[in-house]
Write a structure and sequence with these properties.
Helix content is about 65%, strand content about 10%. It is elongated. The chain is of the alpha+beta class.
Length: about 450
């Protein structure tokens, strides 16, 4: 019994030293999400993709604007005549042509509207990606906290089993035990070593995932509490909030708008078009046919185009656009169903995790009392070493169950917020500059010229 007490006291002292060794700048789950929001490469790639999508609007607006083309030609002609040296003549022409689409069956108008709707859809998709990355950061943080606790628990278990091997050996030397007791304790010790190695390996994997998502090494991580900011009282309110606020649903709805405008654009190909073209040219040269004179010409042409039949392609394109519109409308329903299912699942997981936490704490308390009783009974010969090992195993299982349930509660709570569309920089009060997608859009939507991007590339 004194040996057991010394082991418990040593484990408590080691745990206290571990707490004191945590750096003052310990990472929090909020800090992990802040770093991921800034550093995550997948999220930064999604932002770059949105900026590329923004350029679709000025590209579509080019249909409103004139097209200007300049050309120059030069001709050298050689006349080779009998009894006279060859003669070279030069002529040149320079011209500029301006073409302006006056009416194109509203195709440009609808193309611009479709491009704008696509931008809005992509913005909502980016918001969904941000939520996904913040959730991944919270998950990786909680996984490390769990794995660190499990490593600590298994180290304590290892110390306890080493003491049991020593105690069993001492009893055997005194004739109060058998070699079987020693072998049983040694077998449990060997298994505990293997379990510790596995736990350390899992911790390293979780740390690697954390670096990938957050972009920084984990330091001073400790068990977080379930998320509370933005949480609602019951499942019905959570589902209603998710169906109203989740960006994936908004993105699908904007995609429906874009597909609708593309149908109208395709139908516009069957309407008349009006184009006005003006050109000016200048002719120079010493060709005898021009009598050595320079001349200038100018013209303005208005052209009305009435499509009658284009091989049937126009009809196929219209039907194709309508089918894609129908597809996008179905995807809205799919997005709503997915959000609802995710919320219900996360809510159920959170409830189960919280209940498991309560049960595990009760199990730990009862298992420790049982272990203490078995050890006392072992002293008077009423229990065996195997009984002590079994009781210790019950304590170990209960402790790891508690740690896992705490991790599950954290992940389920943040998963619930993510499914509701509320795991955002603003709702969680993250101390980081929020990415403003509209700034780039406003800078490029009406640009006529320029090769450089907004950031100067």
């Amino acid at each position: 019994m004194p040996n057991i007490r010394r082991t418990v006291e040593a484990a408590a002292f080691s745990a206290a030293l571990a707490l004191l060794s945590i750096p003052a700048s310990a990472e929090t789950i909020t800090g992990a999400m802040e770093k991921a929001y800034v550093n995550n490469p997948d999220l930064n790639a999604a932002r770059a993709a949105l900026r590329a999508t923004d350029e679709g609007v000025p590209i579509a607006k080019s249909g409103y604007r004139p097209q200007v083309e300049a050309s120059m030609t030069g001709v050298q002609t050689r006349f080779d005549r009998q009894l006279a040296p060859p003669t070279d003549y030069h002529t040149g022409t320079a011209s500029i042509t301006i073409t302006q689409q006056i009416f194109d069956g509203f195709q440009t108008l609808n193309n611009v509207r479709a491009a704008e709707a696509t931008v809005f859809s992509s913005r909502e998709t980016l918001k969904a990606n941000e939520i996904s990355i913040l959730l991944a950061a919270a998950q990786s943080y909680a996984n490390i906290a769990r794995d660190q606790e499990i490593v600590s628990i298994r180290k304590q278990n290892l110390a306890f089993l080493k003491e049991q091997v020593r105690a069993a050996t001492s009893r055997t030397d005194l004739g109060e035990g058998t070699r079987t007791d020693v072998s049983q304790a040694e077998a449990e010790l060997a298994q505990a070593k293997a379990l510790l190695v596995t736990a350390v390996s899992q911790l390293k994997q979780s740390e690697a995932t954390y670096v990938q998502i957050v972009g920084d090494t984990p330091e001073g991580i400790k068990q977080a509490k379930p998320a509370s900011k933005g949480a609602l009282r019951n499942l019905d309110q959570s589902v209603a909030a998710g169906l109203r606020d989740h960006p994936s649903i908004a993105a699908a709805q904007y995609s429906v708008n874009a597909a609708g405008y593309r149908v109208k654009s395709a139908e516009g190909s069957m309407l008349p078009g009006v184009v006005v073209q003006g050109s000016v040219s200048r002719n120079t040269g010493d060709n005898p046919s021009s009598f050595g004179l320079e001349s200038s010409t100018g013209s303005v042409v208005a052209r009305l185009q009435v499509p009658i039949y284009q091989g049937g392609a126009e009809y196929g394109q219209i039907r194709q656009a309508k089918e894609r519109l129908g597809q996008q409308q179905i995807l809205v329903d799919s997005a709503r169903a997915e959000v609802q299912q995710t919320i219900v699942t996360a809510y159920a997981q959170l409830e189960a995790a919280l209940a498991t936490i309560t049960a595990s704490r009760e199990q730990i308390s009862a298992s420790r009392r049982a272990l203490s009783g078995v050890i006392d009974e072992l002293k008077v010969g009423q229990r065996t070493t195997l009984d002590v090992l079994d009781a210790q195993q019950s304590v170990l299982v209960a402790q790891e169950s508690l740690v896992t349930a705490q991790r599950n509660a954290v992940i389920a709570s943040y998963g619930l917020l993510a499914a509701m569309g509320r795991l955002t920089v603003k709702s969680q009060g993250l101390h980081v500059a929020e990415y403003r997608a509209e700034e780039h859009y406003e800078a490029v939507k009406d640009k006529w010229f320029g090769l450089r991007t907004v950031d100067g590339k």
